[in-house]
């Protein structure tokens, strides 16, 4: 409430100053140039009379000058009356209208774009708030129940509809059939019945107990997200993290974990995950198009000056491990000629665009070979900070640090 009181007081004060300036300006304008001309002409008439009295000007010349000045005075007086009645009222009204539109427009813009009553937060508070949002976000059932019930697609023919009904009956009659549940989850997903697909996939994972593959767990998480209309619920996150426990490189799970972080107020972490996925490719991976659509906006929210990199080539940028090993056998001059430019280019790219952990590791190793240990240690510390929370990336970076002699 105090925010609106202060904001309202400031708005009224500014509007009052502007209105006062307009009205005062209008008053001055009414008697401005034309009024000044009238005063000049009257002074000239008086001066002519004084010149006649002193004998400086003859009476005939004075009459001619007097007539000309009087003519100009009458014209100026008419112009002033016309100006008062037509020219000044419209600009004043227009100015007041513009002020009113500005005040109302500012209020409307803030209500649309701003967050009334929501003050700025320190980084520590933002992180704590995001964690609270993540912990208290709605459950899977709440999200699913908020969506309309599934309806068979209009293009679904009668034969396929009959086959689906038969498959559902068969799987219901054989609740322990893993292959049946896998097939049912696939077909329910195909027609867009994601809620039913979740049930089938969840039963499949349950039947396999600890033997479910990372991709099966990731598929369960993805189906839960699809069934919730794109929302990553706590249950979906649980499935995705279970997949990552078995395979840290599972791209499906990593993409959706990034989506969860973006939804819960951690665009910095989401950007790092998606940037790594984008650079790793391949270009035809299903997660590449949605990342390309959102990553620039995500980078802006994360405070990163970012340009979308080239993807899909599968080639490495910067010196390879073989380059580094060969350089170690050369003379210092030959080593610098072979690897120096590559190290510079890789360092500049990582500093401006970022990159996957393997590129950071190659740079650290290369600097160790070249004997630039202080620089290697500084880049190692930076990389550890960039990839905080990604254990596999940290292990790769620490291995490069040990190789360069900057990590014990």
Tell me what you see in this structure.
- α10 (214-227) runs antiparallel to α11 and α13 (267-280) packs antiparallel against α14.
- The longest helix is centred in the N-terminal third of the chain and has 29 residues, at 2-30.
- Residues 312-318 have low confidence and may be disordered.
- The chain folds into three domains: 2-113; 140-302, Tetratricopeptide repeat domain (Serine Threonine Protein Phosphatase 5, Tetratricopeptide repeat, Alpha Horseshoe), CATH 1.25.40; 321-404, no CATH class.
- It is built from 19 helices and no strands.
- It starts with a helix and ends with a helix.
- By secondary structure, it is mainly α.
Produce the secondary structure layout:
Blueprint: H1 2-30, H2 33-54, H3 59-87, H4 89-113, H5 123-136, H6 140-145, H7 158-173, H8 178-191, H9 194-208, H10 214-227, H11 234-246, H12 251-263, H13 267-280, H14 288-302, H15 321-328, H16 332-352, H17 357-369, H18 373-386, H19 391-404
The percent range for strand residues is: under 5%
Return the CATH topology of the largest domain.
Serine Threonine Protein Phosphatase 5, Tetratricopeptide repeat
For the termini, the CA-CA separation is 57 Å
DSSP, total strands = 0
Order of helices and strands: HHHHHHHHHHHHHHHHHHH
**The CATH homologous superfamily of the largest domain:** Tetratricopeptide repeat domain
Task: Tell me what the CATH architecture of the largest domain is.
Answer: Alpha Horseshoe
- Which stretches are low in confidence, meaning pLDDT under 50 for 5 or more residues running? 312-318
Structural shape: elongated
Number of helices: 19
